[in-house]
Amino acid sequence: MAKVYVFDHPLIQHKITYIRDKNTGTKEFRELVDEVATLMMFEITRDMQLQEVEVETPVARAKSKILAGKKLGIVPILRAGIGMVDGILNLLPAAKVGHIGLYRDPETLKPVEYYVKLPSDVEERDFILVDPMLATGGSAAAAIDSLKKRGAKNIKFMCLIAAPEGVEVLQKAHPDVDIYIAGLDEKLNDHGYIVPGLGDAGDRLFGTK
Ligand code: PRP
Ligand code: URA
Can you tell me which residues bind 5-phospho-alpha-D-ribose 1-diphosphate (predicted)? Predict the structure, then answer.
């Protein structure tokens, strides 16, 4: 069964509060999402593999460590996931970025896929799929289907806010994909919005309504 990690780091929790606040405007919302993405990425990469190397310091030769293992691919779910990409690339500027375009049909709440573009070496990369919201879980589950269909094997899912309903759906659909969350909320409302959540992540990021 997939593991669920809820990040309780004080800096993450502090920033999430202002992200939730309806009085936070687009500019500040964007900056906060960017910062939280960086902080979450710092935690998520804790298990990255290292290899030992030698380096010449101004004083002596030293044994030291650099990142080893598989290369990373970051995949935002369009469009709101885009708001998390720069924050992640702050830490891993060489990571390749794929895109999966999905929107939720407002009537059925089912995801509709309209765009997929991934790095050509999908099978050789570990992937981090990012989207600020995990609501019904339909979008994240469909995006992971899409990644797996194209050869991705090792995937993590990172979101800012999740509903318990979405976590359950995703765990059932993809028991091999661990889920990383900044805020685990109470429930979904009748329109499939997370309560208390933060509203519509895409609209708040891009100033649309
Ligand atoms: C939002 C959000 C997720 C999806 C989550 O996107 O960014 O992708 O809803 O909902 P789910 O878990 O019920 O599938 P939306 O469909 O509003 O599209 P947008 O990012 O283009 O605004
Ligand atoms: N998508 C959002 O942007 N917000 C929600 O609360 C649910 C889905």
Answer: 79, 104, 131-139, 200
Query: Do residues 84 and 33 make contact, with C-beta atoms less than 8 angstroms apart?
Result: yes
Q: Cβ contacts of residue 99 below 8 Å, gap of 6+? A: 75, 76, 78, 115, 116, 117, 118
Residues having CB closer than 6 A to ligand 1 are: 77-80, 102-104, 109, 111, 131-140, 166, 192, 200-202
Strands, E assignment, the chain: 4-6, 50-56, 61-67, 71-78, 96-97, 99-104, 111-117, 125-130, 133-134, 154-162, 178-184, 187-188, 194-195
Report the length, in residues, of the chain.
Answer: 209
Question: Annotated binding residues for uracil, as ranges?
Answer: 194, 199-201
Q: Model confidence over 119-171: pLDDT tens digits?
A: 999 999 999 999 999 999 999 999 999 999 999 999 999 999 999 999 999 99
* 70 pLDDT higher than 90: no
Q: Is 193 in the pocket of ligand 2 (CB under 6 A)?
A: yes
Binding-site annotation, residues for 5-phospho-alpha-D-ribose 1-diphosphate? 79, 104, 131-139, 200
**Nearest residue to 92 via CA among 126, 115, 57:** 126
Tens digit of each residue's pLDDT (9 = 90 or more) over 177-204? 999 999 999 999 999 999 999 999 999 9
* β-sheet bridge partners, residue 113: 102
